[in-house]
Amino acid sequence: MGVFKRLRDLTMASINDLLDKAEDPVKMLNQFLRDMEEDIQEAESGVAKQIAIEMKFKQQVDEAEDMVQKRTEQAMKALEQGNEDLARRALEDKKEHQNRFDELKIQYTTAKTNADQLRSQLAEMKDEYNKLKNKKDLLIARAEAAKAQKQINQAMSGFGSDNAAKGFDRMSEKVLQMEAEAKASSELRGSNKSLDDELDSLGAGSGVDDELAAMKAQLAAKKEQQ
Fold it and tell me: Cβ distance 47 to 117 under 8 Å?
């Protein structure tokens, strides 16, 4: 039956191969399961029809068998009552029912074999579906983890790269240049003092010298008073 084709196609190996090529494994996994659910429903319908055929043949076989047994008993009863002609007719009808029974038995056996095979395939299909359904959550978790890792790797691709290091080196050189220029500017300003600034600095004493001179004057004045 065509409804079992996906069971042959959707093996674990083929699913893993398709997931490798899929843009969105999560959507693909859900789609796989939906497809298998539809196929299982179709298969169940097909199996149900085959079982109905099996049951119909079984009923006809049983009816034919019952008629064979019934005509046998009737022929014996007719003979017991001395009615050989009636017994003969019963046996002739029995023969027709026997032939029908033999034909129906062959058809019933074939129908039952087909139904049993379809039952087995359907059970296998459901078992495969349940395995994939149980594995879906694990595969989805792996897919999400891989997606997150890929995003992190992309974000980190430029982090700490040579371009960033070279940029820091350029900024360090720029800061050193600025500091050197500031120092040079300060030295240049010191070398450009005016004549008045230099003369004023000659008469300027330190605060400590002035305070020490004042204390000496106080001591001298105190000795004179004694």
Answer: no
**Alpha carbons 94 and 176: distance in angstroms, whole number:** 120
pTM, whole model, 2 decimals? Answer: 0.52
Output the CA–CA distances (angstroms, integers) from residue 109 to 32, 64, 134, in the order listed: 36, 15, 37
79-95 pLDDT, tens digit each: 999 999 999 999 999 99
d(CA 28, CA 16): 11
Kindly list the distances between the CA atom of residue 37 and the CA atoms of 7, 27, 49, 119, in Å, as whole numbers in the listed order.
11, 15, 19, 16
Q: Which residues contact 68 (CB under 8 A, 6 or more apart)?
A: 94, 97, 98, 101
Whether CATH 1.10.287 fits 2-156: yes
Q: Which of 50, 49, 41 is nearest to 125 (CA)?
A: 41
